[in-house]
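Exercise: predict the fold of this chain.
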Amino acid sequence: MIRLVFLLLSFFSLTLSATEPLKKVSLQLLWFDQFQFAGYYMAIEKGFYKDVGLEVALHPYKHGIDVKAEVLAKNATFGVGRADIIRYDSAGDNFSLLAAIFQSTPSILLTLKSSNINMIKDFSGKRIMQTADLVESASIKAVLNAHDVDINSLVRVEHTGNLQDLVNKKVDIYSAYISNEPYTLEQMGIEYKSFTSKDEGFDLYSDFLFTSQEFLQDDPEVVEAFQKASLKGWEYAFEHIPESVDIIFKKYNQQNKTRDALAFEAKELKKLAYKDVVHIGKISENKIQRIYDIYNILGVSEKALNIEKLIYNNTRVYFNKEEKEYLKKHEPIRFCTQPDTLPYSAIKDSRFIGIGASLLTLIERNSKVKFKLYETETWNESLLSIAQRKCDFLPMAAATDKRNRYVNFSKSYYYEPLVIVTKEDKNYILDVGSVIHKQFSVVKGNSFIETLKKSYPGIKLQEVDHIKDGLLGVEQGRYFGHIDIMMSSAYHIQHSAKQHLKINGQFKEPIKVCFAIRNDDPILFGIMNKIVGSIHVEELQTILNKWVSVNYTKGVNYEYIKEIVVLTLIFLLGLLYRGSLLKKQNSALEKLQGELIELNETLETRVEEAVYELEVAQEIGKIGSWIYDLESQKLKWSKQSYEIFDVPREEVDNLYQNFRDRIHPDDLIMVEKKYRESLDNQEYYEIQHRLLMPDNSIKYVYERGKTIFSYEGKPLKTYGTVQNITEKILNQVELDKKDAFLLHQSRLAQMGEMLSMIAHQWKQPLSAIASTEITLKTAIELEKYDLSDEKQQQDFLVFLLERLDKISLYVQNLGKTIDNFSNYYKPNKASVLVDLDSIIEKSIELIQDSLKSALIEWELDLDSEEQIFVHENELMQVILNILNNAKDQLVNNNIENPKIVLRSYTLKKSVVLEIEDNAGGIKEDILPKIFDPYFSTKREKNGTGLGLYMSKMIVEDYHRGHLRVENTQNGAKFIMEVSKGEST
C-alpha cells in the first residue's frame, strides 16, 4: 500500500491564484548592467517573478553606492553583494544570505604587461582602482597579506568602470571580472597579466543575493518566492545563453557591450556558477566559515559567526517582534484534535499520535513554538472546545461555512484527494457521475458530505459510524463503494484483512487540509500562517511514509557466508597453482601480448561502434534507455533520454530529481503509483504520461521497464526505455477532432432524410384535416341540417363534435411526430440503461411511414429484453442509417415484394441486432469498402459516404461492439453486436 502515499505529491504544487495583486519589491544591483545579473533579468522577462505574485524593480548601480546600506535603509528589498557582507554581519543580526550565485569569485586584478608588475609582491606602493566594497574584500586582503604586501601602501582610486584608465596608465592595478575586461583587452590587442585569489588558494563566493533580517521576519513567504524565482531565472539564463544575451543586448546594456562580449561573459560566469555544485546558488556552511576565518586572521571580523542565523533556511519559521512577544506570553499553544481517526490523529493514553502529531513535532523543531494537547473524547467535543476557547487551534481540519463562525482557516498545507473504495473486480471509475446512482457509504460528521450533496444532487449516501463499517458494507455488497479521504482509506485497507478492496476512483475537487485557529486571535492566526508556509513537501512526505509504508527485514545468510569462504580458499589455491603455470608460460604470454593489445583495441572499437549504433537507433526511434538502482536511488540515462527530458548532461547530479521535476504535476501521482504497483506485483512497469518542459510545452512519453529482484523478493534494479510519442498523440488528437466533425456532418446529412420523413408523416394528417374542413363547410353552406328543428340541431352537434375530435386526433398525431424526431436529435451526453428492442421499435416508428409509402414490408423478430448501457440516440442513428440504405436499394432495384427483417437476440456478453433485406446483396468488389469514410454508391443523389463509416465508429468506439455486413441468399445482412458493459 506504500504506493498510495505517492498520490499526495502532486497536490503540493498548487499555487496562489493569479488574480491576486502583485507585491512590489526591488533589487539593488552591484554593478552596471551586464550578464553578471542575467538571472534577475530573465526572471522578469520570462514571468518567473510574476508567477509567484511579485513585481520586481531593478535599481541600477551608481558610483559610490553601498548596496548593504540601501537594503538596511529599505530603499531596496533585496541586494547583490560581495563576501564582505560576512565581515559586517557575521552574526546575522542585519542580513540573511539567500544564495551565492558564483561559487568561485570572478574578481581579478589586472596589470599591463608593460608595467613590469609580475608578482603580487610588486603591488607595494602602486595605484589600484577598486570599488569601496572591494577595499575590504577578504580574498584580496588575504592574498596581499600572504605576500607581505602592506595594504596601506596601496593608493586606492575610486572605480570609474572605464578600462581606458588602466590602458592609459592612470592606474597600475585594475580590479575587474574575469568575464569582462580580459576579453576587451584581447580585442584591443593589449597584453596584460591577471592575478586571482583562486590561484593563491582563496577560492571564495561572490555575488550573494541577500535581504534584511527585518524584511525576512515580516514577510518570509515573499523572501522564499523571490529566492526561488531568481534561481529559476539564473538556471534559464545559463540554459538559454543566446536568448539571454540577445535580451540583455537590447534591453539591459547601459555599457553598450557587444553580443560577443556578453556571450563570452556568459560562458565564463557559467563555469563559476556551477563549479563543484549541481544546483545554482548553493551556500556551504564550511565555505562561509572559511571566509569568516580569513577575516578573523586578518583581525577585521567584528562579531562572532552565527552561521545558522546568517544563512537563510526556508524550513525555518521567522517571526517578527510582536509575534515573538506573543509567544513568550501564550506558549504552549493549546490544540484540540480528532481522538480516533488514524492515520491522521488519535489520542492514546493521553498522548497525541498520528500524522498530525508528527507534523506538530516537525513544527516545534523548525519554529521553536511549543504546543500542548487539550484532550477530548470526540471530534464534536473538539469543535465545541475551540468554539468555547478552551483550545486555540485544530492542527488538521477542512474549511466549512459552519466552522467559520468560530475559527479562521489558514492556507492549506496539503490537499487530500476524496476517493471511492470498491471491490477489486470493479473497473476504474473515470467519471464519478456515471456511478452516482449507486449506493455509497460515508462516515457521518465528515465536512465533505454537504459538498457532495451540492455537487451531485442525486447521490445516494448511507452515513455510518466508522470507516470500518463502510468498508465492511462494501465487502458484503451492501454498498457499491465507500467515499472517504485517500490517506484514511489507504491506511484502513492496509491495516485490515480487506486486501480485495481497492481505491478505484477519485473526485475532482480535493479536500483542503488547514489549521483552524480561533477567530478572536489575529496574531496567532498570523503565526500559524507563517508556520504553514514553512512546511515543505519532502518533510511532510517523510511523515506520510511513516504511517503508510512497507518494511523489509534484512537477515544474515550464514550458509552463504560459508560458501563464500570456501570459494575464497579455492580461489586462493587456484591463484597459487596459476602462479606456477604463469612462470612456465611467461615467454608464451609475452609473445601473445601484442596480439592481446590488438584484440583489446579492436574490442574497444567495436564497443564504441555498438554504442554509437545504439545511440543512432535511439535517436531515430526517439527512444531512450534508463537504469534505476533502488538501493542507491541512483538513475542513469542514455544520451537520448537526456534529449527527451531536455536535461543538460554535464550539469546533472541527481537525475532522479530531474526526472520527477519534468513529470507533469497532474501525472506525478499516476506515474509513482504505477511504478510502485509494478514492484508490489513483480510485473512489467508500463505507462504513458506527460512531461512539462522548461518552456511550458508538453511532451508525451511512453515508458516500459522490468525490475530485477533478489531471491528474497527485494527489488534491486529497474531497466527501462522511454519513447517520445508526442507527435503520435497530437496526430491522434487531430483524428479525434476529425471524427467528431464527421459525426456532426453525418447527422446533418441524415437530417435531410428525417425532414422528408416528417413531411411524409404529416401529409396524411394534413390531408385528413383539410378533408374534414371541406365536409364541415359543405354541410353548413348546403344547410344540410335544419337548426330550427330540435332533433336536427342535436344531429348537427354530434356531426360537428365528431369532426372536431378527428381534427384534434390529427393534430395530436402531428405533435407526436415532432416529439419523436426532436427526441431523436437530442444529444446523449451519458449512457442510459435501456433494452435494445425498445430502441429498435422507436426507430421503426420514425421510419414506418416512409417504408409504407415505398410499399416495403417489415418484419420484427425481437427477443432481446435485457437492459444495457448505451447512447440511445446514437444507436438509433445506426439503425436508421441501415434501414434507409436498405429502403434505397429495394426501391432502386425495383424489387418485387420488398421486405426488411429485423431480428434481435442475446448472447453471453452482448446483444445482437440483424437487419436483412431482399434487395439482391452488395457487389463483392465494393463489399470491403462500404465502411470506409466518404465511400458512397449514391454520389448522384448527394450521398456523403459517411453514414456507414459513422455507424461503425458509434458501435465499435462508443459501445465496444462490432458492426459487419455479409451477403445472404436474398440480399445484404447487417449484424450489429453491442457489449453488455457500460459504454464510453
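Check your answer against the key: The radius of gyration is 41 Å.
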